[in-house]
Task: inverse folding
């Protein structure tokens, strides 16, 4: 795919984008405001831009007259880049030039780092926990009539130097038939022990040579979503992946409501059944996509938070939500997947990532393993932002962790028009500081239905930087625009008028919404500050910040720092890893070394209970401002605000 | 109970018996023949004896006239000893004195040795595989909110020096509730590892202190019968026991017919289900008898032959009956009893005695362990006589074993009126050499229904010693008695006339029956001789002979030596242990040390395949005579026969 240079006038700002990028997103990326309130569906017709040079695809609409079209006007929202371009933003679609230049800087994106499989191989770490070995056993005779199992085990001992092998009953049951299917030529699957002194287990036996086909499944069991990957253990590649909502969602959106449900009658059994249903659905999909049989899978590694893990294992989670917040267990033995109801043959073992505490779960441990935090010298802050936010700080020498409940605002909960990051959710936003008209970009470029977490953060940041709200999140009552109004005693900003939405109501952001956001980001930020203080560090000491989680992948770093969700830091230090939990589960599927390390790492992770740390509440109260009571913690933002005021 | 002295006239033989012993059994024991062919039910009226001194109970019958009774005549079969007695056998009920004195010597009984629990304790071997530990855990607080499992495991580590503990999912599932039931005061059941380097497992957790109640079940899974014992692991005592026929009997009497059935469709699953049904029935009985709950049981140890074990575990047994006779496995992992369908809570582990080969199974290994053969210096021959006879020779230094198929004659199979040792089976027998009239004693002292294995051996021995049959088992056609006759071309002896039986037919022993017996005993004897020869020993080298098995407990040693079933030896060297398999299972329940040794012992047992040993067939052919072609092997019998001829 080609890259093209797009130059915006009158700003005289240039940006390079991929062919096919939408013009309105290109403008946003370049820090150029274009009025737009319909999310990018071409309904409002406000995002008229003039193509002065080059070619775009689309952008034609009945909102544009023939004359407009002839002059080169197009709608920025439906036009895509097809060559190098020069684009002029007409007066009505843009803002005062001088202000704009100060306000908008090109958007900062963090590097996205995924696991490097080649690196794993080079380091000799590619040792899958389950290994296949092809064996040509001597055929029994009258003078050599050892039992089938002894024949197999002795041969593995002599030929492959395997000692202390263990077998399960289902494997023993298969052995007599399988050995004789292809004349005592068989493939044995050996599961390597995780712990020192553990035994290698023979978990499967197949006729003939099947060593070329060995797979594993990695799965992230999220409160909201479940993702699975099918991994080829010969090549190390992901051959299929699939995600779906956790079927438990209809029993409550967050872990607490799930726990409450689990406490009722057969609630626990029901929730377990439902998530197993979700898992089986994903398994079916990835097997179908890849054309691989369930019998070719050796193991499934699962990572989830403490509540999700306990429920999946049928372990009463009720004490997780009750002081002193005691999980039932932090380590789990390998379990036959079929025993849990997973649609797997009997030989498949399910391995669960261990937990640290009730609120620092296997998903975080997996992220720490997958992102390599436990192996790096760099002092790292690892954050998984969500309703339940988890924070880890440390490196290969030591690790400290904490969890804080941010509330559901980041996932659209408690927000009047809040919604999850799905089609129709406003995910990006800017405003014309003079007209106070918005530029609204939605997921899927359709008319807006609501506001997702990243949209919420961006809006709050934009409102704050443009002075539309103050540092307590209150609207400036003196601004002259019909978009800012009081409804039923609550002040709000109309993001999209009813006829521009899919919901046929004015879509607004209220002061209550902003208040909820401030409390969420305050909890998160004070968690970070408290944990850092407990280990004697400051933000400046950190070498890198790793953001994990679906939400973490969407968030605009600048905006997150503007509202004080993230500490202000060099964005080059920030790395997005996406689904850290899934990444860890995948890593464990590829290398036994990680599985060996994981228990040690879990033990190394010192858990701080924020509710038991007195400074947490002080930090929290100080963080209930935009960005914070102590502006000294946000020097760049302070400078920008100062420059804006003086202009 | 009192003992009384009974003196028989005209023999002038005295014997001491317990009060209440039947007079006819007392006579038999003393070597005194009394005519009797109705088995002891008082029907034939032939066993008239005269009480010349002392008192008997019973013995009164309409077969006796008032005058008879007045003179002191009683029926020996229904009379029991009630004081010191002098009993005269009338002429019509006895035999020629001179012959009798030579023929009958007091019956030799072997010592019965059972496991000595006190000895186990003294040797420090009383260490049950599952141990209960009472723990008062610290209650979690905000500053001590370890997970429940970590709390338990850490406490066991610190307080009880337990390391590397493993837990299963069902235990983890129970922990949160159980810990909180009595304020973190709990009893943990620890299962000790069998192998070096194995881990101790926490298999159960109960609220409060239940250390006083810890039980185990030991079970012998025989082809014909299943026996179970409930053992108190605190006192080491058997608190209840029960036996029943193996429900698989209706699918075939011997292991081969079971295997054949298992090969059909879902035959294996059916047989497994049926034996589990038998086991569950026995469990129910012993729990009911003892008033102990299934939750108070920690483990079940099972011993059975290779076929019974494989079928019980759902492992295809078909290769057991096909050359080169390869069992699927000889060692089995511990298995959750509930997974096998046993009516046990999830925490109960089923432990299976390992096998040596297809025909030397866990029952024999258990016998070797239970009878202490593997710990003795004495050179021992251990035999389990039955359809499938197993022979072990050796001591604590070495062990050799072999199996031979004797056929079903010992269990009444292939015998015209053969039956198992049950009520109505003729189990003892003597004959009047002059009149050729029999003395028939049945199990339960009822009219005869058939002949069981021990009765068969005794009859053959008596016939042979009295010259009624020759050394090829053929009847002397010249004897003048209606009892010896030819029917449909086969010669036979009428043991009881139709009206004296329960079957309303003449109950006979045929030459074909004797032929089958000779082949069975020949197989057994040649097995012993071949195995001894293979290890370079002779009968004379043996320090002791241990006979195991239900059949072994009934057999009359003298008679067994007379027909050449057992090698002729000093009967003081012979020990009956009864159900060796059950004894071994019990031992393993009481001492982990035995469980540790058992794998080593199994490895130490060198298996000889008799079918692959050329001398076996030669030995067999030589043994197809009464007692053997080489009378030099039976010097005492030869002397008796010579003395009889010369008299």
Result:
């Amino acid at each position: 795919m080609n890259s093209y240079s797009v130059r915006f006038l009158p700003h005289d700002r240039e940006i390079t984008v991929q062919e096919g990028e939408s013009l309105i997103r290109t403008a946003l990326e370049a820090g150029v405001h274009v009025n737009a309130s319909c999310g990018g569906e071409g309904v409002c017709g406000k995002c008229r831009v003039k193509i002065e040079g080059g070619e775009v695809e689309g952008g034609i609409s009945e909102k544009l007259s023939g004359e407009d079209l002839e002059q080169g006007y197009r709608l920025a929202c439906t036009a895509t880049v097809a060559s190098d371009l020069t684009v002029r933003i007409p007066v009505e679609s843009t803002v005062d030039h001088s202000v704009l230049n100060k306000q908008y800087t090109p958007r900062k994106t963090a590097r996205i780092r995924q696991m490097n499989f080649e690196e794993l191989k080079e380091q000799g770490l590619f040792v899958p926990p389950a290994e296949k070995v092809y064996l040509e056993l001597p055929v029994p005779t009258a003078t050599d009539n050892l039992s089938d199992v002894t024949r197999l085990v002795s041969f593995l001992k002599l030929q492959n130097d395997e000692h202390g092998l263990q077998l399960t009953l289902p494997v023993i049951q298969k052995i007599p038939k399988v050995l004789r299917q292809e004349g005592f030529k068989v493939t044995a699957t050996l599961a390597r022990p995780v712990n020192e002194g553990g035994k290698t287990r023979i978990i499967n036996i197949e006729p003939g040579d099947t060593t070329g086909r060995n797979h594993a499944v990695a799965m992230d069991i999220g409160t909201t979503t479940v993702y699975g990957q099918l991994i080829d253990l010969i090549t190390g590649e992901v051959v299929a992946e699939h995600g779906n909502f956790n079927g438990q969602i209809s029993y409550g959106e967050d872990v607490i409501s799930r726990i409450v449900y689990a406490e009722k009658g057969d609630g626990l059994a029901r929730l377990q059944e439902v998530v197993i249903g979700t898992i089986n659905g994903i398994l079916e999909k990835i097997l179908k996509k890849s054309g691989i049989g369930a019998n070719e899978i050796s193991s499934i590694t699962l990572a989830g938070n403490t509540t999700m893990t306990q429920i999946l294992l049928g372990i009463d989670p009720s004490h997780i939500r009750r002081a002193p917040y005691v999980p039932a267990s932090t380590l789990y033995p390998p379990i036959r997947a079929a025993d849990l109801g997973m649609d797997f043959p009997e030989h498949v073992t399910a391995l669960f990532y261990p937990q640290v505490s009730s609120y620092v779960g296997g998903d975080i441990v997996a992220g720490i393993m997958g992102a390599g935090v436990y192996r790096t010298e760099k002092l790292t802050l690892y954050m998984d932002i969500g309703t339940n936010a988890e924070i880890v700080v440390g490196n290969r020498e030591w690790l400290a962790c904490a969890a804080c409940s941010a509330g559901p605002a980041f996932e659209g909960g408690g927000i009047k028009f809040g919604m999850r990051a799905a089609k129709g959710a406003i995910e990006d936003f800017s405003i014309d500081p003079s007209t106070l008209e918005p530029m609204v970009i939605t997921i899927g470029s359709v008319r807006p239905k609501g506001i997702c977490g990243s949209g919420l953060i961006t809006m709050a940041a934009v409102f704050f930087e443009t002075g539309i709200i103050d540092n307590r999140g209150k609207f400036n009552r003196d601004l002259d625009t019909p978009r800012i109004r009081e409804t039923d005693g609550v002040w709000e900003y109309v993001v999209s008028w009813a006829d521009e939405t899919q919901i046929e109501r004015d879509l607004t952001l209220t002061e209550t919404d902003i208040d909820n956001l401030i409390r969420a980001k305050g909890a998160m930020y004070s968690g970070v500050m408290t944990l850092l203080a407990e280990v004697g560090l400051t933000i400046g000491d950190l070498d890198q910040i790793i953001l994990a989680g679906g939400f973490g992948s969407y968030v605009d770093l600048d905006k997150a720092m503007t509202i004080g969700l993230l500490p202000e830091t060099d964005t080059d230090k920030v790395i997005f890893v996406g689904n850290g939990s899934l990444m860890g589960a995948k890593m464990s599927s590829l290398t036994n070394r990680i599985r060996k390390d994981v228990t040690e790492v879990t033990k190394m992770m010192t858990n701080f209970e924020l509710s038991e740390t007195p400074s947490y509440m002080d930090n929290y109260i100080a963080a209930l401002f935009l960005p914070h009571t102590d502006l000294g913690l946000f020097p760049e933002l302070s400078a920008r605000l100062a420059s804006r005021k003086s202009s």
User: Anything to note?
Assistant: The longest strand of chain B covers residues 225-232. The radius of gyration of chain B is 28 Å. The longest helix of chain B spans residues 267-290.
